[in-house]
Prior knowledge:
- The complex is a heterodimer of chains A (511) and B (306).
- Chain A has three domains: 5-233, P-loop containing nucleotide triphosphate hydrolases (Rossmann fold, 3-Layer(aba) Sandwich); 250-331 and 419-511, 3-Layer(aba) Sandwich (Rossmann fold), CATH 3.40.50; 342-416, no CATH class.
- Chain A is 35% helix and 23% strand.
- Chain A has 17 helices and 23 strands.
- In chain A, the strands form five sheets. In chain A, strands 13, 16, 19, 20, 21, 22 and 23 form a seven-stranded mixed sheet that branches.
- In chain A, strand 9 (205-210) and strand 10 (213-218) form a beta hairpin.
- The longest helix of chain A is centred in the middle third of the chain and has 16 residues, at 169-184.
- By secondary structure, chain B is mostly helical.
- Chain B has one domain: ABC transporter involved in vitamin B12 uptake, BtuC.
- Helix content of chain B is 72%, strand content 0%.
- Chain B is globular, with a radius of gyration of 19 Å.
- The N and C termini of chain B lie far apart (66 Å).
- The interface between A and B is medium-sized, with 22 and 22 residues.
Amino acid sequence: MIPRLELHNITKSYPGIVANEDISLSIQRGEVHAVLGENGAGKSTLMKIIYGAAQADSGEIYCDGKRIEAHNPAISRSLGIEMVYQHFALFESVSVVENIALAIKGVFDLDRLAAEIKTLSARYGMPIDPHRRVHDLSVGERQRVEIVRCLLQSPKLLILDEPTSVLTPQAVVKLFETLRQLASEGCSIVYISHKLDEVQELCDTATVLRNGRVTGVARPKETTSLELARMMVGSQLPEMHVSPSVPSEKPVLEVRGLSAPARDEYGTELTNISFDVHGGEIVGLAGVSGNGQAELIALLSGERTHSRSETILIGGRPSGHLGAGERRKLGMAFVPEERLGRGAVPPHCLWENALLTAHRTGLVRKGLVERGQARDFARRIIDRFKVKANGPQSSAQSLSGGNLQKFIVGRELTLEPKLLLVSQPTWGVDVGAAAFIRQTLVDLSRAGAAVLVVSEELDELFEICDRLLVISNGRVSPPLIRKQTNREEIGLLMTRVGHGEARRSEVALEN
Amino acid sequence: MDLFIAIFTGTIIAATPLIFASLGELVVEKSGVLNLGLEGMMLMGAAFAFWAVISGLPMPVAIAAGALAGAATSLLFGVLALTFLTNQYAAGLALAIFGSGVSAFLGRGFGSTPIDALKRIHIPLLSDIPVVGPLFFRFDPMVYLAIAIFGLITWFLYRTKGGLILRTIGESPETSHAIGYPVTRIRYMAVLFGGLMAGLAGAYLSVAYTPLWVENMTAGKGWISLALVVFATWRPLRVLIGAWLFGGMTILQLQGQALGIAVPSELLSALPYLATIIVLVIISQNRQMLALHFPASLAKPFRAAS
């Protein structure tokens, strides 16, 4: 049988790096094919080449046996190749149906299209309201929009780039059902991921990439996770050491009946949130994004202040009214979710970025910057946290996501905080660096600091946290001891803590 | 009554060039491009339209010449900002200075004699109705054209696929490119349309509003049009209302000066600018609506990735 898609010796380099080198693979009709690899292994580049969003320097692409000469996304779509991006290609200011109308050819008839969207999305078990504005949708819902958009084209090959990174466990199950249904109808699926369990559950074959090269082809259902992981990482995986925690007597962070209105129309209102974080422990906050995490973390970090100072106590001191700088003086440190823009100033170099939060440690004297000391400080972070960078002079935006995250985590840890807030510590970070960052957080907490981790990755929370909280619709669940709970319980809480009307309809959609 | 009719018609006429210029700029900005050179394009339009009239060309041709001159000037900006990806603020400011310089140079031979202004229409019966006739049916054709263009732009932006494409390019050119739209080409078209409209605005000034040539005769109307777009939070209807408001204040202060109100005339002249800004600041208080209509990629250069 002629394969749906064949790649022969694809090579692509960008200035300074070879993203793909001599990659060949072949995908049959109705096959679910995984492309496995760490971040930076070249998966996304390869997908862009298949889709035509980037051009290979050399190599050939065949679709249904025919060679694709000059490639671009329009050709892909005429051939029936569709792609669901990791960062969604949706316009936030317009509605679902308008977004989809932009992506498909044919008469501009929004009413008819809306009806089609409703039918199709219901058929594949992922209902969406075509008239809602994308800005108001949760990440999971946005993904549905993307998938439905592709499905409207009756694709022959569907490319999904890390589709589950933003979904609840229940939504992942739903997504897999949809994908299996699609595959059984003859659609080939390219599934990009670094999550082994998912690949083993869903995919027929897997091509493993490392540093831009193919390091193995496997049948994931018949291969052990360990073997797959070795192909991905190339060496022994670092092991986590999580020693038992000895929580301090008094909590370092106390949140008492914290309520706050939504910041804007799209935000989430926080309702009566209370919890403690003790020194020596890691508390995790699980939840699907858009359920109030952003609001809560802004209030905890001091980016947004609260009129009632006693709602947040740091080291026993009422701090709700304090700004970020004053809270840092109390021994708080913060690693925000957005590395570029919040965690670091993108065009500035590393030592300048180090200065942003470390200026109290003697790097500024009488209002003047001690450049030499600042550089040394940045250099120490680079060495200690094994940041791959061309020294303290390289700009923050020139680092890969994982390396920049290591730098930012390193910067905050070097301040020896009593309380560390971390949001999405390993988002988009490769396996090796993620393990390193997690270990660092564990070590910090065992040295006596209180650590609060906000993450959407349940695996991560289960790996490092002592206690877990679940946030949903602006409410936080009572704490759960990690050892006494499981993913299913957390997953259910993720959709059911809140009991507002809006939440209920959401649950109906999710189930 | 006569005073009211005079103020009303004066308002509509004074607002017309602003409507052309700011609606054109609105389309440009909706595509994510900021062309600050309105003043320059308007002056080029004014100069060419005036030149066409004194060369004996018929009025419609003269107005078209002004529009085309505006478009040609905007092309200069397009090449700089869209092809060579220069900083849009700098390119736009340069265009404003360039346009005022070149138009002044061209205008040296124009003399200072007034020309016959664009004729006002006279519709039998309709224009003769008392009050209503002079209020609505005795303007020159450009006034009606401006309102028609307002309707057309609103329809295009919010009812057609083309408008949707334009707006979404203004939100995220990267995404539009990924879906397969020719971002740069569409932005060029928007910029050219903006130039055309600015040219019309200029032509209106020199052949209808004050039918004579004076150096820098736009007198800041290009800048006020730019401000209108921003304060109107990128919405056509608000641009229209803002332009009328400005026109109204202009006429009122002229009347005030004529009546000899004991306020320095310089202050009175500043009144329209002040009033327009205050009112528009007040209506742009709603930040959510602002965020919804603001073209998120405004003034950010875009180059398709390879």
